[in-house]
Amino acid sequence: FHSGEREEKCIIEDVPSDTLVMGNYKVQRWDIHKQDFLESAPGLGMFVTVTSPSAEILLSKLYGPQGTFSFTSYLSGEHVICLQSNSTRFVAFAGSKLRIHLDIRVGEHFLDESVVQAKDKVNEVNFRLEHLTEQIQHISKEQNYEREREEKFRKTSEETNSNILWWAIVQTLILISIGMWQIKSLRDFFISKKLV
């Protein structure tokens, strides 16, 4: 995505509890002379701030023009990941555009291929099985989290439907009572005028 030089951009990531989140980013600065983004942005860094659903700051750190950050979620819910450049230019002069490449991985543990190649085949299979077991546990956590969210949404929907039903019944009773009152008033009016 593109950003202004001192502009803060935030991304909301819905994460289950006790889950590792890793992010890789790279910043490129716009070059006016070349009319293209430079491959790197020397001297430019990024402030990375991560806020939990309870507004607790999990991570607040300055990184370089490219880097990796990680955090573990303690609560399930929407975590806000914000990136802002550490440009020292004044706001009036900081009109340069930045291109930020961001890759966020939730709950993944990556295989270190150099470790895998260094071990014999039995250890490699064992290592890969452990990795698969971790992935299965992560998928299970993710499913449980989605199940909780679906149950909460279903309860809210049922409460809303119940309220709508009761409101419709109250409206019907009010309309019937007003109609009966109007008929009685009209009948009394006709009787008082001796038209009936």
UniProtKB/TrEMBL annotation:
It comes from the Eukaryota. Residues 8-106 form the GOLD domain. Keywords: Coiled coil, Endoplasmic reticulum, Membrane, Signal, Transmembrane, Transmembrane helix. PANTHER family: TRANSMEMBRANE EMP24 DOMAIN-CONTAINING PROTEIN. This is Transmembrane emp24 domain-containing protein 11. The lineage of its organism: Eukaryota, Metazoa, Chordata, Craniata, Vertebrata. Pfam families: EMP24_GP25L. It comes from Pelecanus crispus. PROSITE patterns: GOLD. The chain crosses the membrane at residues 164-183.
